[in-house]
Design a protein that fits this description.
about 130 residues; alpha+beta; 2,3-Dihydroxybiphenyl 1,2-Dioxygenase, domain 1; 8-stranded mixed beta sheet; globular
């Protein structure tokens, strides 16, 4: 039966999705579509990425290489202490493909991300907005 043998309660509990990422080929075309066709609220650009607000969840559209796979989606879980969550998951043998790193400096906070794969090689992101001051 599914779930049998799972009796532990993890100290890390990812419960709030903060961001979903979609990989696109042409960022300008995607921005036109998401802004003007779908009417999403544009937030900011960061390198080859554009960010939109969708209620409580942020949508990130990122340009991939022309030969990169299409349909790549990443779910980002919002955490308050990225370093502590990262350390806990590493202790539980989670291998990170990208350790916590700064992505963008915003007016009042810094955006930090980290990435790991689930057992089926799906990319999972951890998102932390660190307030300054």
């Amino acid at each position: 039966m599914a779930g049998e043998g799972v009796s532990f309660r993890s100290a890390v509990q990812l419960e709030k999705i903060g961001q979903i990422a979609i990989t696109v080929v042409d960022l300008a075309r995607a921005k036109e579509f998401y802004s003007n066709v779908l009417g999403m609220k544009f937030l900011f650009d960061a390198g080859n990425m554009a960010f939109y607000q969708c209620g409580d969840v942020r949508l990130m559209i990122g340009a991939g290489a022309a030969n990169s796979p299409r349909g790549g989606t990443i779910v980002y879980f919002r955490v308050s202490d990225l370093e502590a969550v990262h350390a806990h998951l590493v202790e539980r043998s989670v291998v990170f493909v990208q350790a916590p790193h700064l992505v963008a400096k915003m007016p009042d906070h810094d955006l930090w991300l980290a990435f790991f794969n689930d057992p089926d090689a799906n990319v999972i992101g951890l998102l932390c907005e660190k307030r300054r001051g």
